[in-house]
Amino acid sequence: MQSKLPKSVENLIEEFGKLPSIGPKLAARLTFYLLSKPESDILKLGHAIINLKENLSECRNCYQICEGEICSVCNDHERSGRVILVVEEPLDVIAFEKTGNFKGHYHVLGGVISPIDGIGPEDIRIDQLKRRIEADKIEEVILATNPSLEGEATAAYIKSVLKDSPPKITRIARGLPVGGDLEYADEVTLSRSLDGRQNF
User: What percent of the residues of the chain are helix, what percent strand, and what percent coil, each to the nearest 5?
Assistant: First the structure.
C-alpha cells in the first residue's frame, strides 16, 4: 500500500526512526510536531544539527568531547590529577559531573570489550589508559563501566592489565537506586548493595 504522506515528511520520519529508542510512532509524532512549529524554529534546529560537529574534538588527555585540544575538566587545576575515573562513553562523564562529587579526572574508553560484536581490548582506549597512569603518576583508578556483562568483563580485564601497576584500583559500588523497592530488586543488585555497604 502506497503512503499518502508527502515525500519530505516520509523522509524525516525515516531519519528520526534511525535514532536510538525512536520507534515509528514516535518518529511520526516528532515530525508532525515540527510541522506545527514556525519555520524559524525548524531552521534553528536544522542549523544546530548541521553545525553539531563543527569545532568539536576529543580531549587529547581523557577523550571527552570538547572544543579545543583539552576539555574543561582536564584544564581545571583545582581537580586532582592523581585520580582517574574510567567510563565507557562521554555521556557517563556528564552523569558523574552532575553529582558534583567527583573531583578527579576521567578516561573515556570509547566502548567496552564485546567479542560478540568483534570488539576486543585493542579497539578501546586501554593502552592509552596505561600510558596515562605511567606518565601522570596516577594513585587511584576507579572503574566505572556499566553493570552489564560487557562492562564487568571490561573492568575485570583492565584490573588484570594493571595488576602490576602502582595505582590503587577500585570499582564503583553497585546497589539499590534511591526510591527503589526491595521487593523489585534482583538478587545481584541486592548482593551488591550488601557488598558496598558503609558504616551508618
Answer: 45, 10, 45
> How many CB atoms within 10 Å of residue 168?
11
CATH top class, domain 79-194: alpha beta
Answering whether pTM is above 0.90, one says no
Give the C-alpha separation, 85 to 170, whole Å: 9
Does the domain at 7-50 match CATH 1.20.1250.20? Answer given as no
Q: What would the pLDDT profile of 16-26 be if each residue is shown by its tens digit?
A: 999 988 999 99
| Pairwise CA distance, residues 82 & 91, whole Å | 22
Task: Report domain extents, the chain.
Answer: 7-50, 79-194
Bin 32: left if φ > 0, else alpha if -120 < ψ < 50, else beta.
Answer: alpha
Long-range CB contacts (within 8 A, 24+) of 1-4? none
DSSP-assigned letter for residue 176: P
Q: Does residue 132 contact residue 61 with C-beta atoms inside 8 Å?
A: yes
Instruction: Compute the half-sphere exposure of residue 3: CA atoms within 13 Å on the CB side of its CA.
Output: 10
